[in-house]
Target: Caspase family p20 domain-containing protein
Amino acid sequence: MALTLKSSNGMDGPAQLVVAQPIEPSQDLDELIKFRDIFDENMPSSRKPIRHDSTSVLLLSWDCEEEGFTDFDVREEVGQLEDVFRNDYGFNVERQVIKNGASPQLQMQMYLATFVLQHGKNHALLIVYYAGHGWHSSDRERSRDLGRPGFDLHPRQLEFREEPNPDNLVMWEVAEATLYQVKCDVLVIFDCCDAGSLQFRSASRAFEYLGACDKGKYTHRQSERSFTSGMTWALKKLRSEPFFTTATLRDKIKEWKHFPSGQQPVLFARFDLPEHIWISSMRKDVTPTPKRRRSSTAPESPELRDENCDFVDFRVFFNKHLTSEDAKLVANLMSPVVNSRKPPLNARHVSVLNKSTCQSRRTLGAHWRRAKRLVLAQRFVKQLSQDEGIDDSGPRKRPRDSFEGDDEEAFPGGGIIDMVQRPVTPISEARDSGTEAPPTLRIETGIQSPPKKRVRHDPVDVGEALIRDLESLEQNARLRPDLHGVLLPRIRTMKAALQESE
Model:
């Protein structure tokens, strides 16, 4: 597990300890999410809240006035939520509806752009709320271009296997790009189905999503059991608090007596800043409750978010495999970093971004399958060159260390493949890091010497094998934000070329 320490310039300025990229991406995303949730529950944070100079709210929904346009009438619930934000918290509130006729995509982008231009100032908090239908896109080409599934907002619920009308939906990943340009904190709240599908992982600001349910799950329509009704109740209960985080709001929503027991609201960061957003009322007449005034754990005086913070990357190695049950122990281990109040450097927050292993994830079976595919591919290329009358006796431009020379000489009589196992845990990138030479891995493939009359292997099988390797590499590249911008376009180009050749 790798950690990052972020600090500010001042003596009392906040520092932040976050996790850097791991050696190998975690294979089990659900296990990683569970580990992170348990860690966050047990990891203390700085007692200094982040305050905002202003908080503005944009409430978005579909036009319910026109009959037949939408089957999701949220006017009453959104009106109650608007009243709480405006009157109980003193926030700037704007309410916009997406109308029939004009392009919903352009309407959404116009509403967001106008909202950001008017209120997206430094040290501000922007809250974007949407109530309506939503589901991840089934468009494979769009998902391939994005490197992840898209997310659609539409005015009515789709029937089973019904494809949405592209002229009557909002591609949210396109619309939300407007929010990337702001330099303030952003909280997006989605009361729609499948909201958890938006989760994936700006260090100078926070960008969080609060969703009504996890990916692939459904929410209740407008009623006392809806997510919006629970959030309205939770905000009323928390209005006497001088400051609270989005995590506190999520947990409070689940306490609503009518909230479905099987529904789990999700809260996740859009980027890599792990600290939750702080919310506080803008009204001057709000005073803490007597219990809060007497509490010895009351938050310290709030501070503005420091945009000029530095960070240091380092890695923490453990002598065992970490499970989700170990997350609490890891949190206890890191607690002194936050609890220490000795100047000149204070840590503000510690959060897990990823967890990895020092061992190679490639098993012997995987090595054998990959070796066999490479042998078949090499033989196919040689057979093809012989059929075309191409002299293949010359040196290759890019010889492979694992398969040098002619295949009959390299693999006589059901031979053995010598493969070089890649070092999986470099201690340092320096040339003098002292790492030992990698051991040689010998794998018995069971491949016999080819018969005198060679059989041409189907190029489709070889191509499909290579495409599977590229898809695996593409999946791992998505978990590396520092690399996927470079790797993904090249991987997609190679896949497209292979698919066209088939």
Observations:
- The chain has 13 helices and 17 strands.
- The radius of gyration is 28 Å.
